[in-house]
């Protein structure tokens, strides 16, 4: 075999995080990088989730890069096809195609402490990189529950994120498992076509109307001709959501009015008292992500749509048995059961400086420094890392903040010069994590009385950021070298520079 390809930066994933990282690298003058993507095209979760009705619950003009505004969004809340087309457009506009390595799934990444670089094994070959930017995202690997009898179910089974478009649901008895963001979009989309639809609900979600509409040609013309109108629209959407944050993070009692509005919205469509009781949550609104739909409740009111207010416990042939004993016959089962968020599979494929996987380091809960770097993993960072998620605004804002941090991280490596690595100090990671978890204690996500996918197996919220996007932008504006250990390669062996010396070099 010939010499392995070596690059300055290897980006993993080509969703919003990966493409955003690639654009930022080019803007920083770095062209020696690749984007490793396991699929055959870009798009990340917006490529994988192509189920009927799939759309974003964040307004389009906010759910897009600030450096790549789109004046031609078709709707205020655009659907999956439009968002995926936008990402393809970003790849073309910013010249990212030559950097893409499609059909290149990362199987393992190992830190070479002797050469201060990452060894990367992919399904298409091997390469090495000075720095790895992991942008696989938390919504990339579907979670399928272990249901007794599922393997012997004679009908069709698939996850919402792996929709089988070759299977015709028309005239079928369909079971939908889960009531998350995907399910409330799928149910109204397929209800008109199926013979019978049964929704298995463990916990009812809070649902607010989605004020979606087509964006007029005049609006789009105005945004093209007068860019400041587009920026003003984005700024207004951002500002409203920033003002909402304190209710989620400091004063959950203020959400009572929102609960009342949600109940009124429910009552407008659901007239059956028994069904209304099943759909009314018993926890504080906001504890789970507030879902947006104007079609969900009307769909549940249809005569051929049933709600089982209990989780699926067992499958016997074509019969689905709920935990409360309810039996349902089905020809197809669709799982809307979420993703591996707090136990991301990519963590099993990253081996750090101590020879341990990231998953092993995170076995008691994910934690990183400023949502980006983990102790024991030099020159490795993640986009949308621990405690960077949002409950009410656009993740693109958080991604762009992390791209700022990534850019400064690479600048610091350049300033230090030579073959060098930065390793997050465990003390800095622990300090940051303690601060985040202390702030988390009073948030609605921790006090609202629900169990959500924000929480890990230990009940800790390792997913959401307990503050505004503006605060996070400030915290990730630049790298503080005192939070890192500088590792240099001198005379063919790595040498760890003491904290004082490392800081002096970084400031030079």
Automatic annotation (TrEMBL):
GO MF, one annotated term: oxidoreductase activity, acting on paired donors, with incorporation or reduction of molecular oxygen, NAD(P)H as one donor, and incorporation of one atom of oxygen
What cofactor does this one take?
FAD
What's in the keyword line of the UniProt record?
Answer: FAD, Flavoprotein, Monooxygenase, NADP, Oxidoreductase
Stored Gene3D superfamilies: FAD/NAD(P)-binding domain
Q: Does the keyword Transit peptide apply?
A: no
Write down a Pfam family by its short name.
Pyr_redox_3
Q: Which family does it belong to?
A: Belongs to the FAD-binding monooxygenase family.
Could you tell me which PANTHER family the record lists for this protein?
FAD_NAD(P)-BINDING DOMAIN-CONTAINING PROTEIN-RELATED, L-ORNITHINE N(5)-MONOOXYGENASE-RELATED
Briefly, what is this protein's role?
Answer: Catalyzes a Baeyer-Villiger oxidation reaction, i.e. the insertion of an oxygen atom into a carbon-carbon bond adjacent to a carbonyl, which converts ketones to esters or lactones using NADPH and/or NADH as an electron donor. Thus, can convert bicyclo[3.2.0]hept-2-en-6-one into the oxidative lactone products 2-oxabicyclo[3.3.0]oct-6-en-3-one and 3-oxabicyclo[3.3.0]oct-6-en-2-one. Is also able to catalyze the sulfoxidation of methyl phenyl sulfide (thioanisole).
Q: What is this protein called?
A: Baeyer-Villiger monooxygenase
